[in-house]
Backbone:
């Protein structure tokens, strides 16, 4: 059995400027996974940098509200919503609320630096 608590995951600033804690990654634990799972956070008034992955990604909003941008589409997102981000699309999320925006990121196949392009 493998269980990992959020507080056991080191916090770091990701390439897209989100505050990230990585729960699961097949390169960092002996797990039979294709995907990676991370907890992300943005302070009020901040946004991630526009970026593109060659892989698919899903955000699940845990707390707060934001504005999700995928290519030319923009939608308000709130707690309890899942957002599918297709491969090769330009994306960023902004926190337009008064509290921290917290969300899970699932990347399949697992995130790697080589699969990400950060713009701006």
Residues:
């Amino acid at each position: 059995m493998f269980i990992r608590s959020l507080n056991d995951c080191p916090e770091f600033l990701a390439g897209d400027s989100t505050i990230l804690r990585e729960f699961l990654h097949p390169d960092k634990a002996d797990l039979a996974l294709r995907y990676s799972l991370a907890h992300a956070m943005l302070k009020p008034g901040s946004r991630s940098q526009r970026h593109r992955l060659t892989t698919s990604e899903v955000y699940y909003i845990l707390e707060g509200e934001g504005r999700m941008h995928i290519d030319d589409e923009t939608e308000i997102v709130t707690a309890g919503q899942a957002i599918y981000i297709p491969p090769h699309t330009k994306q960023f999320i902004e926190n337009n609320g008064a509290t921290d925006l917290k969300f899970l990121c699932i990347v399949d196949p697992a995130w790697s630096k080589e699969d990400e392009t950060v713009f701006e």
About this structure: The chain has one domain: 13-118.
